[in-house]
Amino acid sequence: MGRTDESNIAKLQNKIIKCKKCPRLAKYIAGIKEKYPSYWCKPVPSFGDANAQILIIGLAPGRFGSNRTGRMFTGDSSGDFMYKILYEIGLCDNPLRKGLPWQVPTNANDGLRLKNCYITAMARCAPPQNKPAPQELSNCFNYFEEEIKLFKNVKVVIALGKIAFDGYLKFVRADLCVCPIKKKDFKFFHGATYRSKNLPHVLIASYHPSRQNTNTGRLTPKMFKDIFKNAIEYCNEIH
């Protein structure tokens, strides 16, 4: 454990923002930019407390969410759902609204601050139909791989959805000199928790807070909040 070098985090985010590795995605978000000039429409950088103990992994920016605002999980229903939960359990606040009721985040400059958590994603550009292609995920994985190695204090990883879950396991298999892990030993389901000497972090799986899950009751606020409560408990246990 130690302090994360935030300058290295910032350099990586600047590199990500300039990325054009995926022609299909670059063309897609450029087309959105033509129609909506005020939109961010670039790869979306990670966001949060660089010395956090909890790392949250999402899938990809939403066309009208973080692709519009330039900050992860900001500007759409997924973020509205998630940030309210994080606020309620003390993992985010907004110093600009001290003493005022909670208000959903609206833009990258609204004062929202994450506390002891950091948000990243397996894909950085908004994909058509919210579905990045395998090669696009592979291109972005290199950034995820570089980023996660920079963190000094992460104890718990929360994977929002199966793609994030599989991406984290890919990192473990590819980069860490530990006993080999077998994919079949790691099943994705909501609340699945893996704590093993073969993993560098506690891994917790959660359904993604997408509208398809939250509007249908597949993912309720209580279910989601329990994921983060458990993560906090694990952080307190691990020394």
List keywords for this structure.
239 residues; 8 strands; Uracil-DNA Glycosylase, subunit E; 6-stranded mixed β-sheet
Write a structural description.
The protein has one domain: Uracil-DNA glycosylase-like domain (Uracil-DNA Glycosylase, subunit E, 3-Layer(aba) Sandwich). It starts with 5 loop residues before the first helix and ends with a helix. The chain has eight helices and eight strands, in the order H-H-E-E-H-H-E-E-E-H-E-H-E-E-H-H. Helix 4 packs across helix 8. The chain is an alpha/beta fold.
- Beta-strand segment tally: 8
User: What is the fold-level CATH name, i.e. the topology?
Assistant: Uracil-DNA Glycosylase, subunit E
CATH structural class: Alpha Beta
**Largest β sheet strand count, sense and barrel closure:** 6 strands, mixed
Percent of residues in helices comes to 25-40%
How does CATH name the architecture? 3-Layer(aba) Sandwich
**Reading side by side through the largest sheet, how are the strands ordered?**
1-5-2-6-8-7
- Count of helix runs: 8
CATH superfamily: Uracil-DNA glycosylase-like domain
Number of domains: 1
- What would the principal axes of the Cα set say about the shape? globular
- What class would the helix/strand composition place it in? alpha/beta
The run of helices and strands is: HHEEHHEEEHEHEEHH
